[in-house]
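Ligand-bound model needed. zinc ion.
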Amino acid sequence: MIAAIAVARLPLDLPLRCRCGHVRGVASDVSPSNGFRFLCYCKDCWAFARFLERPDVLDPAGGTDIFQMPPGRVKLIAGADALRCLRLSDRGVLRGYTDCCRTPIANTAGAGFPIIGMIHSFADHEADGRSRDEVFGPPLCRIYEGSAVGPLPPDAPRRRRSGSSSAAHRRCSAGGCAG
Ligand SMILES: [Zn+2]
Ligand SMILES: [Zn+2]
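Prediction:
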């Protein structure tokens, strides 16, 4: 048992990779308790995936699966030349993607902001050998679900009026999407 606990506490490195493999990196210390996973259905996240012609990264209701974490835990090891970013509105977040294969990688409010929202499509779960739920934990909330383009999955986390849930919702919104 002691050995199992020691293993569980090791820092968790998650390999990162764009679809074609040109851009690669690693996110360190990734675990459900070390970040915050949520689904964003805002129009800008949807428009971003459409712009990249990557609707495959969206869930059936048009949501983007995002894991918030400190930017210092993400290191690129190859392909930095292919990084691009754009803003969809004057005050919108910066949206990073790769030029090689148009993989969305992360959203950030800008240099110096303590959190980035890594988009699931940049995580290399195949190389990692673990599922998205295992690495990030289940989504803790969804935001802007009013602009979902399809029915939300029945097992989606629901907004409740309890304190913890509305705090989670505030935290999701603060981490930066449209609003
Ligand atoms: Zn690529
Ligand atoms: Zn969004």
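Residues 51 and 102 are 9 Å apart (CA to CA).
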